[in-house]
Fold this protein.
Amino acid sequence: MIHNEMSRRRLLGLGLGLGAAATLTLAGCGGGDDSSGPAAAGNGGKDYTGPKVDLKLWNGFTGGDGEIFKTLVNQFNSEHQNIAVSVATYQWEDYYNKLPGAASSGNGPDIAVMHMDQLATFAARGVITELDDVASALELSEGDFAPTVWKGGIYNDKRYGIPLDMHPLGFYYNKAVMEKAGLDPNKPPTTRDEYMAALTELKKSGVQGFWVSPFQFTGGMTFYSLVYQFGGSLFDAEVNKATFNSDQAVEACTWLVDMIKQGFSPANVGQDADYLAFKSGKNAFNWNGIWQVNDLKKSADIQWGVAPLPQIGSTQAAWANSHNFTIVKQRSQNANKVSASKVFINWLSQHSLDWAKGGQVPARKTVRDSAEFKALTEVNALAPELEYAAFPPAAPGLGEVMTTFYNAFNEAALGKKSPKQALDDGVAKANKQLEDNRKKYGS
Amino acid sequence: MADVIEVGAARGDAPPPAASAARRGASAGRAGRATPYLFLAPYLVLFTVFGLLPILLGIWLSLHQWDFQLPNRPFVGLDNYKELFSSDSAVYGDWWQSVRATAIFTVLSVPLLVVIPLGLALLLNRSFPGRTFFRAVYFAPYVLGVAVIGLLWRFLLDANLGLVNRLLGVVGLPSDTPWVTDVPWAWISLVGVTVWWTSGFNAVIYLAGLQDIPQELYEAAKVDGASAWERFRHVTLPGLRPVLLFVLTTTILASANVFGQSFLITQGAPGTETRTVVWFVVEEGLRNNNAGRAAAMSIVFALMLAVVSLANFRLFRYRED
């Protein structure tokens, strides 16, 4: 699952933002860090005045976003004479496997970038440390971020992650294909009725307009979004029980599977086939991650647009995940390093506009409201989804349960089982896994 | 080597002659007994560190609920093993499905990987123009990494966009076969790709074996009036027996360890029907941090393979008798 996201993200190009260092300083001033009171080491990230420290940072940005990240780090280093941050990049999957061992043997980084759905696992396993003091010292609160993202950094009532960005699922439409079918390419469907009407028109022009992939990327995430759109959820509030076989979830799954049955999607769509078909004009609509924006921008011959997901169910909702900064627990804690790390995290969070050019919606509200961000048409188009984004819940060991969820959808989408049967079976297994996790992590 | 040492030692010590002879004899015996172990020592050290210790550690892990990052790693006795055999545990279904997937793949792929490379080797052993070129061609896919062949074939075999289905359509065959998303097609794809990928390796082993069979045997057989089939049956096959045993054993083990192909080409689809044992072990141990459970699965799987390998050796020994 992580691997897949990584490989998709590797497709990201260098983006546009490399030359934007000049505007960066301006954008950074938007943050709320202008109260430069007396600062001592360890005041939660406002300032660092101690001796020079070297910080190691690990991330999984193997695509063009990695370059943008390094540019930002270089800028930070030149502005902070007593902090030197060095960056190491691994593929996400290796990275998550490697980090715990490295940390416990004393070879780990000081700062680690992590997906929101990994935070609870790494917190429960004692790899990362609490950051509540960063939030309070910097007077960061829900208001500075989107509530959905901000709450995602909390596990067991303690904060472990400072959100950098969010990457939701968006609705990509191929304008040329729509035009050919007599649809207005500038008015993508936003409701269920419009969506079905558009698909019917597309079918008349000989195009199967909505390829439903049976895999996590992208069909599984589409289904995830729809479960919440139909008013369901994947788990109960305490994440004790899986609920993705609720009537709402079955209805959502049936709607997607019917896309195949009614011929709006071919059967047996392969991994990436939905997106490749979209790019080559065989598919009109693709619900895909925001990280595809930069890939599509590179292909000049595709006319496309991106919008928030159409509302198929009774409410708006979209799958999303988020990159968070975390501080890694060290065998011998160095107070200077910790406070310098906090300074870095705060600084980068304020300077996340350039990061947006890597194809992510900044988590920080001030950056999102800036004119510069609004100028990033495509990424900005998905910013409204932040309000109703359905992030994965904070529960340790959730990764394998999510795999079960996606596999259940796979069986339904490939017609091996009816939606109800597939989801019932999936929930039965997921509940056992959740029980195992409770035993293991003692929550 | 022992002799040299002895001679040197005898000279240097210059002990009384009579005693010297006796002692020399005794110590030569000791050193003589030690010699093979001294020669084996370098490998033994490597085997102990990288073979034996991990196995023992694995057994120890399998008796615990083990997450190296958690302070609490309780001893659970045989619970990890019981889970694999009790149908109400979280892993039972997945585990046996992965065993089933691995067994299907092994049973389908091993005969092909034993027979086809043998045929190739027989052909490539003849002298014809361009022989070296063809030897290289058949070996070439083996040089590619699993990531390369995995991605390559995933796109070639895609049901809706792939080249394979398009070509089938051109010649009037069904063009919508779900090669990578439904069974039994997924098995045909996985086995086919693996045969294409690794046949060259087995063929090279066979080729070396073929070249070891004395030419005189073939000549003698010819003189006795043996047909081509009889020469193959009574000269080539017996001459290849040790090589066949080697190929069969390594191929069974390699097929049972299949991971990359299904991970990349079918991604386990449909559902988890093509998820293999090694994949599931990796998933449990590294992704889900259940090292104890993963270790138990590895050990049960290793025992299964040991039984198969024993049967295999048994079979060939009987033939020899």
